[in-house]
User: Fold this.
Amino acid sequence: MGGLPAGSATSGIVLFGIGSPICVDIVETCRRNGQPITAGIKNFDGPIYVGDDVDVVDAAIVTPTLSALPFLLPLFDPRNRRAAREAATTLGFREPARLVDRTAIMAGDCVVKAGVYVNAGCIVASAATLEEFAFCNRGANIGHHCKIGAFASIGPGAILAGLVEMGEASQVGAGAVILPKVRIGAGALVAPGAVVARDVPDRGFAAGNPARIQASPPTG
Assistant:
């Protein structure tokens, strides 16, 4: 660990925060896309999820040359991604990368902003917008005119019908279905497999089929 001591690399992207298992999917997308990875930044003690072909650098020894490269946050949980963004900024990272798997189907007029990751097999329909640092996991299907807020996360196989809006840092679980014109509020959580037919409030929780809406996730 602790490669690139001289900060000599001047191309490729940097993966910031490599302690999440989802990191292996980002690495695989880079391989499919022919996108070089300059380094993976280890910012916490614990397991790492990049292979031996990715140079692992401790956050304590990040150089200005390294922090000048585009960076991506390979973390699914919106809270973890936000925290990693703050840590990366503190270390001098300024240019978020965007990464769309070559197997994804993207409408020609959809908007994909900086920091976004779109995993394998996703479909993003016409007039959809993915705001900064949104995360779309394997096989997610995003309908026309959807707006996915900054730091929002969409789980594998989730379906968002047309005109759905996800607020900032909201999360839709694997296999959930969001019906047309529904708004998922900022910081809200939709459980895996839920079928949501009405709005979920900010920081609210939806689960079941049909989904029951609660003001906050259950505790305990």
